[in-house]
Write a structure and sequence with these properties.
There is one protein chain. 30% of the residues lie in helices and 37% in strands. The chain is an alpha+beta fold. It folds into 2 domains: 79 residues, 2-Layer Sandwich (Ribosomal Protein L30, Chain: A); 142 residues, Mog1/PsbP, alpha/beta/alpha sandwich (Protein Transport Mog1p, Chain A), CATH 3.40.1000.10. α1 packs across α2. The strands form 3 sheets. It has a 7-stranded antiparallel beta sheet with strand order 6-7-8-12-11-10-9. A 3-stranded antiparallel beta sheet has the order 2-1-3.
Length: 237
């Protein structure tokens, strides 16, 4: 049985008004602009973080096509959002970690450590969770091209890592990304790991940020990790 997905709108993109987004959505959905505007206003004024679910139980290709249309209308969208909705960790003390070479800027809990060596890396030593950044070997790639290259490298070079969640869209606060998740045992490791790969593009820059940790820890901290990715990660050109 094929895996099914949910597509939801969680907000509108910066610089756009609810009326502008509603007008575009009304044309897309062939619905009354006033009716759509009421829904959009309700969404942007919510304080409980709940999303506007557009489609449930669809195949990945369908929700990816719909994601593109909604994004072009000015929506911030998530595929399979039930895994990381609505959490707010704004009271956590954060500090910035950055890689000028990659263009990555990442605000993370203040007690996490910069363990960068050959690669940009931030580590939560309490849980042995590693956030590692890498850049594309070539410039001028689209997000889709970079994701295919980066995720293809995981499949080729890490055959022990099996797909846990197929590639899906993830909207950061200022740009879209593509994420895939894997589980398996890395060479030289005895225990299983959860491995998330986030691909980003902006201008001439293409970068990835991975999360590697034990599956139980990832499941427990998933809401925090996605909140950080969506709200505290930036790629500068």
């Amino acid at each position: 049985m094929s895996e099914s997905y949910t597509l939801a709108v969680t907000g509108i993109r910066d610089g756009l008004t609810p009326a502008e987004v509603a007008s575009a959505l009304a044309r897309l959905f062939r619905r009354s602009e006033d009716q759509v505007l009421q829904t959009v206003n309700t969404l942007v004024n919510r304080t409980d973080g709940k999303a506007w679910v557009i489609r449930q139980g669809a195949d990945l290709a369908t929700v990816q096509r719909m994601y593109a249309g909604l994004y072009n209308c000015g929506c911030i969208c998530e595929i399979d959002p039930s895994i990381h909705l609505a959490a707010d960790f704004s009271s956590i003390a954060l500090r910035q970690f950055a890689s000028e070479k990659l263009g990555l800027e990442f605000e993370a809990p203040a007690h996490w450590e910069d363990t960068s060596g050959q690669h940009f890396q931030v580590t939560d030593s309490d849980t042995d969770t590693e956030f590692t950044g890498n850049g594309a070997p070539v410039s001028g790639l689209s997000l889709q091209q970079w994701a295919e290259m980066r995720l293809g490298a995981v499949t080729k070079s890490m055959p022990s890592m099996k797909t846990f969640k197929q590639a899906y869209g993830l909207q950061l606060h200022s740009l879209p990304g593509i994420v895939a998740e894997y589980r398996g045992t890395f060479p030289g490791y005895r225990s299983e790991s959860h491995y998330l790969v986030l691909c980003l593009c902006r201008g001439s820059k293409a970068a990835s940020l991975t999360i590697s940790t034990e599956p139980a820890i990832f499941d427990h901290c998933r809401a925090l990790y996605f909140w950080l990715l969506q709200n505290k990660l930036e790629l500068r050109d």
